[in-house]
Amino acid sequence: MSDRQKAILVVLITTREFRWHAGAITADGLAVPLLRSDQANLHHYTELESDEQVSFLRHRLAGVLQRGCDRLFARHMKANHFLLIADGRFVEADPAITQRLADHFVQWMINPPITYIIANPDFEIHSADQIKVIAGTCLPEVTTVLQTGLPGLVKQIATPESWELITRPKNPDS
Fold this sequence. Notes:
The protein has helices at residues 50-74, 97-108, 140-155; strands at residues 5-14, 19-26, 31-37, 77-86, 114-118, 132-135, 164-166. The chain is α/β, with parallel strands linked by helices. The chain has a 7-stranded mixed sheet with strand order 6-5-4-1-2-3-7. Helix 1 (50-74) crosses helix 2. It is globular and about 45 Å long. The protein starts with a strand and ends in an 8-residue tail after the last strand.
């Protein structure tokens, strides 16, 4: 396992489109697109009560992290940090949902460490002061890699064929 290249597994959450993209950023800033959801993949939470919203989002995003780790493994890479980066707070949800979800991930997923960030709607981060951490810690080395590799990852969102499409399960609760 030690011969695997370390990478940050990044999940970009587009809250208004109810979708996500998962990719990796290597220590030298190389952006590696991995997975993307179909349109409205996360929409089901809007139909649920507050506690069920957190449960649904937690389950769905944990699945994204697991699939992302599987894809990294196939590329001889290993996640040394998880970053969940949302372009805002979850819409059509209890106002506390985003914080509750972020806190849950940080409390329950300790290896590798996880950080939940709120970014601009276009996911641009040009300086460390633009990184709004709402749960977890963003160490200086993670911030540097993020600033270097995030623009390349975001740019590739416009090229859907660069990402493996993960469609919504038939049962929306899973």
